[in-house]
Amino acid sequence: MIDRHSRLPQLDLFLPVQPRSIAPKYQLNVNGSTYYWTGRGRLPTAFDEYLTHHRHLGSREQLLQGLLIQGQEVAA
Predict the structure, then answer these.
(1) Average pLDDT value for residue range 38-61
(2) Given phi > 0 = left and psi -120 to 50 = alpha, else beta, which region is 6?
(3) Residues paired with residue 36 on neighbouring β-strands, in sequence order
(4) Is the per-residue pLDDT at 15 higher than 80?
């Protein structure tokens, strides 16, 4: 049996991958510290604590709407 992959040249070349930079979508100011979040991935602890502590003020979406950096929109 012929291995069709044995004829392929072996490349030891790895191209560097540029990390993608995603602009933050949300900003939270707590006790003089500013926290940013892109809205992707895990919810940062500062945002989680804020949403948990202020849940009586509205839904998660309503609270996040108030933390948007100017010019951003909440995805539906």
Answers:
(1) 92
(2) alpha
(3) 27
(4) no
φ and ψ at 13, to 5 degrees? -105, 125
CA angle 44, 50, 22 (to 5 degrees): 35
| Mean pLDDT along residues 32-48 | 93
Calpha distance 10→55 (Å, rounded): 56
pTM, two decimal places: 0.64
User: What distance separates the 2 farthest-apart alpha carbons in the chain?
Assistant: 70
From 59, 58, 57, 37, select the one nearest 46 (Cα to Cα). Answer: 37
Cα–Cα dist 55/46, whole Å = 14
